[in-house]
Amino acid sequence: MQKIFKYFLKVELISFSFFVVLLVFLGAKLAFASETNGIIDGNYKYAWGGNIGWLNFNCDNCNVSVIDGGLSGYAWSRQYGWINLNPTTSGVKNNGEGTLSGYAWSSNLGWINFSGVTINSSGYFLGYATIESDSSQINFNCANADSCNLADFKVKTDWK
Fold first, then answer.
1. What one-character-per-residue DSSP string does 9-20 give?
2. Which of 87, 108, 112, 134 is most buried, taking the most CB atoms under 10 A from its CB?
3. Could you give the CA distance from residue 138 to residue 99 in angstroms, rounded to a whole number?
4. Model pLDDT, residue 160
5. 90-116, pLDDT tens digit by residue?
6. What kind and span of H or E run contains 2?
7. What are phi and psi of 81, to 5 degrees?
C-alpha cells in the first residue's frame, strides 16, 4: 500500500511540475502580446511637444489602436486639434516588434514623422516623433530627456 501511495505521489508531483512549467511558459507568451488590438493606458497617455504642448493619446474620441501592422485613431492637442495616426495617404506603421515608422497628419501641423519612436517590451513608447514643418519634436516618455522629476509623462499600450 505504501508503494502505491508513493507511486501516485510521484505521478502527481510530476504532473503538477509539468502543469506549473506549462503555465509559466504560456503566461510568458501571453505577456508579450495583447490578445486584441492594443489600447493606450488611461494613466499613461500624454506625450509632450516643446512647440505644441501636451498630446493626449487616450481622450474620449481618440480611439487609438496599436496592432502589429500600425496605429490607428487620433491624438488630441488642445492647441492644434486632431492628429490622424492613419491618414489615407500614409499612416504610422509598426514592424510587429515595436519599431514605428511612417507619418501621422494634422491639418494644423502637417506631417508628423514617427520613425524615431519605438514601443518597448513593457508597452512604453520611447523616442521622438518629428513635426516636418518646423523639425520640432514630440517626446513620448520623460525618460528620453531625463526629465521625469519635472514632469512624469509617458505613453503606454497593452500591445507588447
1. HHHHHHHHHHHH
2. 112
3. 16
4. 83
5. 999 999 999 999 999 999 999 999 999
6. helix 2-31
7. 85, -150
Task: Write out pLDDT tens, residues 113-141.
Answer: 999 999 999 999 999 999 999 999 999 99
Taking the whole predicted model, whether its pTM rises above 0.90 is answered as no
**What is the number of alpha carbons within 13 Å of residue 32 lying toward its C-beta?**
8
DSSP secondary structure letters along 82-130 = EEESS-TT-EEEE-SSSBEEEEEEETTTEEEE-TTEEE-TTSBEEEEEE
Side chain identity at 15, as an amino acid letter? S
Alpha-carbon distances of 30 from 27, 67, 124, rounded to whole Å:
5, 15, 17
Q: Which three cell numbers stand for residue 78?
A: 488642445
Q: Is 25 helix (H, G, I), strand (E, B) or coil?
A: helix
**For residue 22, pLDDT beyond 50:** no
The single residue listed with the C-alpha cell 508531483 is 13
- How many angstroms separate the CA atoms of 118 and 99, rounded? 5
